[in-house]
Amino acid sequence: MKGFKKLSMLSLIIVFMISMLSGCIVPSTSQENEEQSEGEFKGTIKMYAGTYSPNRILNANQKPATVMKKLAEEYEKETGIKIEFIKPLPADQDYMTWVRTKASGGQLPDIIWSQWYDANTALAKGTLTDLSKYLDDPNPYVDNKPWNELLNKQIISDTKSADGSTYVINGDYVGTATYYNVEAFEKAGIEKTPETWSEFIEAAQKLKDAGYIPFAWNLASTPTGTDRITWLTRLFFTNFFADEYDELRFTGNEGITNQDQVIAIKKGIFGSENEKWMAIWPILKDFSQYWQPDFTGGDSNGQGTMLAFLTGEVGMYFDGSWASQQIKSAEPDFEWSSFKNPYPDKVISEFATDFDSSASIGGPSASFQYAVPTKQANNSLTPAKEKAIVDWLMYLTTPDHNEEIVNELGENVPTVAGAEPIEELKALSDLTNQPLQSVFGGINLENKELDAIYRAFQSYILGETSLEEFAKVADTEMEKTADALIQQNNWDLSEYLDE
Question: Which keywords describe this protein according to UniProt (predicted)?
């Protein structure tokens, strides 16, 4: 032991002499400090904060995010822990590829942004820390109230992995809504916003009778046009198949996966063999009579329907919660607001259920979804550092801080209990407490498949092809895509298809 002490002292003298010769003392890293200390972590936490990052890359007309930086500075004063924000990736760099690459080398930052679905199914097991062990802990920044009483219970329940792990802490919700012209509604004699599809169509007819274009729709062959049809079909599929939702989760995951959809296609549940699946399309064609005359035209970089709405000639249109700030900044010369999307009812179809599918388009998949990589994916992680990371996440998820972060940009709805959204999105608040349940109907397993089905849908809406001709294309594309996915993933579905 004495020899060891002498050797250690000699080593320190040599290091000191070398550092003096180089003109500086060699500082120990924060990791070394942490490993030497058995006390609290006092180093730097590195965070990929994404959209809410103070150094995010801005596109035209985007607002900078400043709140997270302010809170980080306040947190450092209070705890001595510094928060360093990792610069977000440019748009042309694939984020998930970056995450996987960094994880394989143990180089991920201490906190990353991650969608719950990716965390549960797309990342290798062992990449992210199961945070469920902390959910019952008191949040010291909210009178020691248990953390899980502040976080949205519905979202925690619905975003767990198949084994019950919680990998992502959620703080916002991206919703989709029907934006409407309040003055047009008043002139058309519409006394309340529609809740069901039959009420929605009734409102559209009243707007038409009052001289307005009832609804702005984009059926152009663009990413926005293709995307919007999946919104609409999801609204109907989720409602029509609500009573079968648990049965459609063949593989046992919380949500319906692509593998589940392939099984449903192969079993004839999704496709023209099923009257329920087929019943949706004529309803959508009937809806098209209320669209603007040029609904197949260009969409002005995804903004066509909004621009039509801003003229004041259109009564309603679909858009995401992010659109509220864009509409607001345009300063239209009429009063406007939004309501949650109407869901199908028995007046519209015998296959409609009582399930409110308004929340099926959107979900806790926006910008405030943060996960903590494990030691395997982040070699700087220690138990002390992990506790400090969780403490910072607790600091961010107080009602006041969550509301301040999310509402600065005004694109999403805050989900922490007690946090309120901006006025324009208050109608969407209830969506955060609804079951996270979506049925895609098998039409968008891959982009190539969706594009082909979408083109067939365009022809059907325009009266160029029949419903049967559309269905034939849809069946062919779904079967072809299902077969390709089975082969690519080496799925053995015999246990599901031999029943």
Answer: Cell membrane, Lipoprotein, Membrane, Palmitate, Signal
